[in-house]
Write the structure tokens for this entry.
Amino acid sequence: MLGNLEIGSTETSEPHIFGQTPTTVRPIVPLPVRPLPAQRFLSAGEYRLLPLTIEAKALFDSHVDACDFLVADLSFSNNFMWLSRMSGFYQIIDDCFCLFSLNGNQLGMLLPPIGAAGNQARALRTCIEIMDSYNHHVGDSRVDYVSPEFARQLELDDDGRSPHLGDGTWLLEPAFPDYIYRTADLIELRGNSYKTKRSEINQFCRAHPNHRLEPLHRSHWNGMRELLSQWIRARLEGLHGTAVADFIASVELERQGIDRALAHYDALGLSGLCLIVDDRIEGFTFGERISRNMASVLVEKTNFAIPGAAQYLFREYARTFADCDYINVGDDLGLENLRRVKMSYRPVLFGEKFTLRRNE
């Protein structure tokens, strides 16, 4: 049996506790399927939130099936792999899967409630109550990656950006959108728009006729980590001052996310490719199908010193999703260089998303 562990600020008069379920804490609603075995939980007022483990994937996916979406964030893998810097928790509320994140001493939501449209707004009100009961300041309560489809369910002011949720006015702030491409465009690279891409790929194939592609497998893990370290060193060479510290912090989160994804690669249902040149791994990528018509690329890394490797690997990975109409490569994180690269592939759609926060 695990001992109780207080988490959060020691100044909190009612500490939040991991431990066995006390009789004074009521579950929000019965789970719609057989509950997952859980001996620990996060207490937020009178509510309990269960830790997000790989075993929760099937339950998450069963609720996503009720949604129509474009953004890659509405994926278990995309959330699970990037939870290295915070803790994930969930609960079923009004038959919606509600995903929370604990970052330091602040409880927020990584996504709005996932489920049938008629239940989501009601579930959100309960989620706000949960966040407010945990956070020291109600301004810390927020919901990330809100889709336009979800936003349209909320009652808004005339400005179209201020939802009413029963306890004051909130704001919908635009976040960086996802870049979405037509799969056939990425495979065929037709026309003048893709002339440079075709040239770079041809240059790579001529310079490295002995290259090969292999489906990503556990036997590639060490070579992938070696390439990632090499990639980090190459990026650091062009950075100076505070940019170095910012890059190291962000790339460490990425490294942890990749390790987390690889540790659960099969269970997450991921697929990927490794690019091998002279018997060395010089590129790797992996992602997943997130709906019947859309795939998502989660990670791609190649050796900067090999021209055309990135373009070649991206095209070949797109071929593995030839039966999908679209491929989503996520947002640009507000980075200008990443924006230019993603725009150069001519997106046909942008997956809009918003952050929901109180108007204080």
In short: The first strand starts at residue 5 and ends at 7.
